[in-house]
Design a protein that fits this description.
- The chain has 148 residues and is an alpha+beta fold.
- The protein has a single domain, classed as Chemotaxis protein chec.
- Helices cover 36% and strands 28% of the residues.
- The protein has five helices and eight strands, in the order ββαββααββαββα.
- It is globular.
């Protein structure tokens, strides 16, 4: 799955976010859940369940992880929440996640390759031109890896 583009949405009073049909149409019919991961940059990352599981399974398991590995796993997976998509293509976002990232009801959903990113509309509008201006610099400084 390759998620691209953006769309503006409103998170309703029940904390539901509608996933745009252009993004839902990329999912196999069997996929009805996402994993929501709050990120410290004020973003909610939404991974389709199969993608999240595939990425999680790429990590080496160990009975004796290093302290940093153990802390990373308990933090990342402790914050990750599985959210079901209803028949209308909506997911209920965890209140805790919304509070952690400071997202209001007006959001922008961005395609970010293997995931969607949910950002505050205000924050995105403030950042969009800057990101566009830095795009060529980002491309020059980033090399795609075969393992991601």
């Amino acid at each position: 799955m390759l998620f691209t583009g953006s769309s503006e949405h409103t998170i309703d009073d029940k904390k539901r976010l509608s996933i745009a049909s252009k993004h839902r149409s990329l999912l196999p019919q069997s996929v009805s859940a996402w994993y929501c991961v709050p990120w410290p940059t004020g973003v909610l990352r939404l991974y389709p369940e199969p993608t999240f599981m595939e990425l999680a399974n790429k990590w080496d398991d160990s009975l004796t992880p290093t302290d940093d590995q153990a802390q990373l796993m308990s933090t990342l997976f402790g914050f990750a929440e599985r959210v079901e998509m209803d028949s209308g293509g909506r997911v209920r976002l965890p209140q805790k996640h919304l509070d952690l990232v400071g997202t209001g009801s007006a959001v922008v959903v961005l395609g970010a390759k293997n995931r969607l990113e949910v950002r505050s509309s205000d924050g995105w509008q403030d950042e969009e031109q800057k990101r566009f201006a830095e795009l060529s610099k980002l491309v020059a400084g980033t090399t795609p890896s075969s393992g991601s």
